[in-house]
Amino acid sequence: MPEDQPSVVSQLLHHWAAGDEQALGELLPLVYNELRRVARSQLQRERPDHTLQSTALVHEAYLRLLGNQPPELRNRPHFIAVAARLIRQILVDYARERRACKRDGGVRIGVEYLDALPVSGDPELLALDEALNDLYRTDERQAKIVDMKFFGGLSSPEVSEVLGLSRATVNRDWATARAWLHRQMRRTETP
């Protein structure tokens, strides 16, 4: 990203939040490749025969952003984090639709650590989404860190910048959240 681009992104985010819908259209080309990287990363955790593609995920996220009230976004990493959460929600919605068409009951998940989480199909994604939603109810800050790092691919310094926390706090919360999610998903695993 060119040096002056972060300030342009921040300005466009500010204009969009102020009600200028064209600003979002100008913003998309500046962050498009990064959003595709996020979408590709999330799709790699999906089943191999998934019908959605990264381009479609980015476009669906764009449409959802366009159709909603603009969130308060401070900068590029914050925008990417919000978009990553939207992309995750699109995949979860898709998995729920697909699951509704099937009648599969139990969910079995083998998890060692969140970093190596084998989210490779609809049941696993739904279980992770449920556990992450529980974490949002328990500790919203930790859940946001998981969203940004695991789904958004943001680094600890970027998460630190978005949330206004020290890197040590981000790393400590990341470790705690992984352990909590591991425990929650192990409970889902046992009959």
Describe the structure.
- The protein is an all-alpha fold.
- It has one domain.
- Helix content is 72%, strand content 0%.
- It has helices spanning 5-17, 21-44, 54-67, 76-101, 122-138, 140-151, 156-163, 167-189.
- Helix 3 packs across helix 4, helix 4 (76-101) crosses helix 6 and helix 7 packs across helix 8.
- The N and C termini lie far apart (49 Å).
Features:
single chain; 191 residues; mainly alpha; 8 helices
Could you say which structural class the secondary elements and strand pairing correspond to? mainly alpha
In percent, how much strand structure appears in the residues? Answer: under 5%
Task: Report the major sheet.
Answer: none
What value does the Rg take, in angstroms? Answer: 17 Å
Element order, helices and strands? HHHHHHHH
Task: Please give the alpha-carbon distance between the first and last residues.
Answer: 49 Å
Global shape: globular
Q: Please indicate the count of domains.
A: 1
Helix content: over 70%
How many β-strand stretches? Answer: 0
List segments where confidence is low: pLDDT < 50 over at least 5 consecutive residues: 103-120
Q: What is the average per-residue confidence, as pLDDT, rounded to a whole number?
A: 77
Quick recap of the structure?
It contains eight helices and no strands. The chain is mostly helical and 191 residues long.
Layout: helices, strands, pairs:
Blueprint: H1 5-17, H2 21-44, H3 54-67, H4 76-101, H5 122-138, H6 140-151, H7 156-163, H8 167-189
Helix pairs in contact: 1-2, 2-3, 2-4, 3-4, 4-5, 4-6, 5-6, 5-8, 6-8, 7-8
